[in-house]
Amino acid sequence: MPLTVDLRSDTLTRPTPEMRAAMFAAELGDDVFGEDPTVNLLEAKVAALLGKEAGLFVPSGTMANQIAIRCTTQPGDEVILESGAHPFHYEAGGAAVISGVTLRLVPGNRGVLDPDMVRDAVRPPNVHHAPARLLSVENTANRGGGTVTPVATCAALTEVAHQAGLLAHLDGARLWNATVAVGAPPSAFTAGFDVVSVCFSKGLGAPVGSAVVGSARLIEHARRVRKMLGGGMRQAGVLAGACVYALDHHIGRLAEDHRRARTLWEGLTELGFSASAPETNMIYVEVPDAPKLASRLGQEGVRAIALAWARLRLVTHLDVDDAQIAAAIAAFGRVRG
Ligand code: TLP
Fold it and tell me: Is the beta carbon of 61 within 6 A of some atom in ligand 1?
């Protein structure tokens, strides 16, 4: 029986024994009363790491993004984002329902926005237009291929947004991968952004949890929106304990995921598959029929997602080791012919 290798997403990781021990030992209280010491610790820690005044623990990256949009817009406003952005593709239309905003998509280069194109996308005030109010940037860009928007481009994008009177949001679900890939601290990426979402439940390996960070005022508002959405959790420290552990122990090791993605890509390229070189932990294989390839690979013990008809996504993570990468390459070799 070949090894099973699950490359569908880095959300699939299960907490390590050490992380489970941290969860077990976490001090708890009622977080809706603001009395969970572990949640309070996590919120302070993530805010400091990202160079912002305050943070808010939320159940998911989707809720983090939706809260960020809700706190920075009014119904009828327009949000500018890259055409592969998560809130457009994968948040069940939440921005329309929760915030009443329209989304204006700007194509990027492998998910990376060009500041000049963003400037051009902001239309002058006119009675016909939904006023652009927010720029949302995803780093790393999931559908872009796990690509990094460099620190200087982040600064240029937020400058363009602010000059045009927009606020700037960073969807940093995988910001940790970007920081490890380029060796810059998270705060270098986040400096110009007014509000940032990050996830602990992707590459960092926590079972649940994301955060919104920003000014103390914005986070006060965000706390009310979280409550409205039903995201006020009680003894949430049992989850936040995993996230604190993840921040302390699992950021540096993302370099291993990136190295394995590279090894996998090299193996696939040698087999004749077409894919761009990974910048972080994702590979998108370009194939004529991605669902068919996913199903063939499944029979060989390798799980991958067809994120489009012609694109198969492979993601490395904490629960994938070197032997599994070798097994995955061997499986691709078997399904090739
Ligand atoms: N992305 C998931 C799926 O929803 C596609 C994945 O497997 O990659 N921002 C970005 C950039 C994301 O990739 C995701 C999750 C989220 C936000 C939402 O996070 P969750 O799943 O915690 O709501």
Answer: yes
Cα 303 to ligand 1 centroid, rounded to whole Å:
18
Task: Kindly report the protein residue whose alpha carbon is nearest to atom 19 of ligand 1.
Answer: 61
B/e letters for 110-148, b = 16+ CB within 10 Å, e = fewer, are: bbbbbbeebeebbeeeeeeeeebbbbbbbbbbbbbbbbb
Residues 62 and 82 placed together within one structural domain of the fold: yes
**What residue owns the CA closest to ligand 1's atom 6?**
9
pLDDT in tens, 204-251: 999 999 999 999 999 999 999 999 999 999 999 999 999 999 999 999
Residue 83 beta carbon below 6 angstroms from any ligand 1 atom: no
- Exposed, middle or buried by CB within 10 Å (0-12, 13-18, 19+), for 28? middle
pTM above 0.85, yes or no: yes
Q: Is the domain of 36 the same as that of 143? A: yes
Measured CA to CA, the distance from residue 256 to residue 131 in angstroms comes to: 44
CATH number at residue 257: 3.90.1150.10
